[in-house]
Amino acid sequence: MAKILVTGGTGYIGSHTVVELQNAGFEVVIIDNLSNSNIGVLDGIEKISGIRPTFVEGDVTDLDTLRNLFEQHPGIKGIINFAASKAVNESVEKPLKYYRNNLVSLLNLLDLMPQYGVEGIVFSSSCTVYGEPDVNPIDESAPIKTATSPYGNTKQIAEEIITDTIKAGAPFKSILLRYFNPVGAHPSAEIGELPLGVPQNLIPYLTQTAAGVREVLTVFGNDYNTPDGSCIRDFIDVVDLAKAHVIAMKRMLDSKDSDSVEVFNLGTGNGLSVLQLIESFERATGVKVNYKIGPRREGDIEKIWAEPAKANNILGWKANVDIDDTMRNAWRWQKKISGLS
Ligand code: WQD
Question: Which of 20, 11, 9 is nearest to 242 (CA)?
């Protein structure tokens, strides 16, 4: 089957996607600069799939590195572009880092794709492009709102860059995948999320608190206009999310349309509050989470969850891992990396 380049393939969503691509018979080449992951992830991937992916350590923002990769690994048919910086707060402090990492990398890929006969690119976008929705669940036709962080802006601009390039006649296709909140880990506990430093996202903070790495989880606000006052999100299991990429890749490579751009929301369609998620974790694992209510976090969206009908109907993809199973997998992974039994 086809050879696929996965940028950022040792990262959180990337590594889970590499496993699913290999399970589906694709040959995978990873490029990653290991800025937010480590080489040991390749062992985890190999343990699960039985195949060690080809790995190139390098930076997608460097055009020569990328050109060498295409020369040395001819016949790449598709790209999944995960390589990006993703910490919202850091992006406010270091906007140029975000614009450079997230956009120069994309420009390089789009520049080289025609020369090397790459037929399509699947792009990791985010529900952040919707800002605070006027209605929930939110579908793909909802307006794109002004981004509230440079990180969010890179996702919006990247979508526009891809769309404009294809509109201008570039000989490839693209599928833009707007992720809601990816959580969990592979059920084998061989791969999962590896946050560097103090986690900014809810689940790694929660599992680290449960493991005793952090003392207390702060719930950022319980005075929102939601049933229990905490924010609502659409938490999507990372393995479900990974599988959507395989389907998107097959669809893209099979399509006869040479100039198409499609966009899909990837979420469960169910909104769950922060407090409900903590409850799910406690129920699923039997472990109590030490948490307290704190002030709101600046810039947080009150509630957002996906209308995934388009992905359900057109991709034939549906999220199906139960949230309690997702929490059990997240906990199994946390215990493994914390050395707990
Ligand atoms: C979820 C909810 C917090 C930590 C961000 C990006 C988005 C995407 C994923 C990815 C919120 C609450 C969190 C904590 C808490 N980008 N929370 N205590 O903000 O929905 O999305 O990450 O790479 O683009 O914006 O995710 O996990 O940070 O927060 O109460 O210690 O959990 O307030 O309501 P978010 P999150």
Answer: 20
